[in-house]
Amino acid sequence: MDFWQIFNSAFLGVIEGFTEFIPVSSTGHLILAGHFLNFHSPNNTFQVLIQLGPILAILSVYFGRLLHIVKTLPASRESQHFTIGVLVAFLPAAVIGVLAHKTIKTVLMESPMTVCISLIIGGIVLLWVDRLPLKPRYHNVMRYPWWLCVCIGFFQCLAMIPGVSRSGATIVGALLLGADKRSAAEFSFFLAMPTMVGAFAYDLMKNYSDLQWNDTMSIVIGFVVAFIAGVFVVRHLLDYISRHGYALFGWWRLIAGGFGLVALMIWG
């Protein structure tokens, strides 16, 4: 690997780690950055596989809480309820992701223009939702009703369009259905675990034979950097959202999508 390959892999890892859990679309940012850096990965595998870094970041930050859920699962109705809720929320994306995998990887993820438009539309939606006079009814992710979990799971499927944002879709869906801002973000964290681990495993199974040495090293570098950045975000995001809401991320999306469109028109 030369210097620029290492730099690009690390830079994209920073983008992934800082954007995976905020509602701005990490995949969309990776696609746009990779396009303008002329960074290529077989079947866009890099963009999917480095997501394991942020997942391990969640596990490291929430390890104690997850361990408690596992230990109490046989006897605690609350732990059982929460676990089933996350699994039923995961199912829609699992089914649609498998059925539409080829279209997502070869069509949607090859279109920077789609990413820019999705970023802008999502930014408008996020600003609109953040200003709605919503009255939250659900504040504890451990007690979300199962119907709410299923609905959030279907919202998550919108994120198969690059630029929509997995966390953005699930958070907006949860807010509209009665969750408060902090618990909506927290449920999005937990739902990310089976979703992204499943995407990682399925994509690796489909594409491991196409990976060369340089591709593998790029993924390793991106994964490590994304993990470090992801730990920082997970530790600080919930407190920020509780105090300030999601408006910053809506403006972020509008600016990123707008600059992306301008850059595409100028440089192609």
Biggest pleated sheet: none
Number of helices: 13
**What distance lies between the first and last C-alpha atoms, to the nearest angstrom?**
27 Å
Shape: globular
How many strand units?
0
| Order of SSEs | HHHHHHHHHHHHH
User: What percent of residues adopt helix (DSSP H or I)?
Assistant: over 70%
Low-confidence spans: none
Structural class label: mainly alpha
- What percentage of the residues does DSSP assign to strands (E)? under 5%
How many domains make up the coordinates? 1
Mean pLDDT across the residues is: 91
User: Using only CA atoms, what is the Rg?
Assistant: 18 Å
Explain what you see.
This protein is an all-alpha fold and 268 residues long. It has one domain. Helix content is 77%, strand content 0%. The protein has 13 helices and no strands. The protein has helices spanning 3-19, 26-37, 45-49, 52-61, 63-72, 77-99, 101-106, 112-131, 146-157, 166-176, 181-207, 213-244, 247-267. It is globular and about 55 Å long. The mean pLDDT is 91. One of its GO terms (biological process) is peptidoglycan biosynthetic process. It comes from Candidatus Tokpelaia hoelldobleri. This is Undecaprenyl-diphosphatase.
Write a compact overview of the structure shown.
It is built from 13 helices and no strands.
Annotate the secondary structure layout.
Blueprint: H1 3-19, H2 26-37, H3 45-49, H4 52-61, H5 63-72, H6 77-99, H7 101-106, H8 112-131, H9 146-157, H10 166-176, H11 181-207, H12 213-244, H13 247-267
Helix pairs in contact: 1-2, 1-12, 2-8, 4-11, 4-12, 6-9, 6-11, 8-10, 8-13, 9-10, 10-11, 11-12
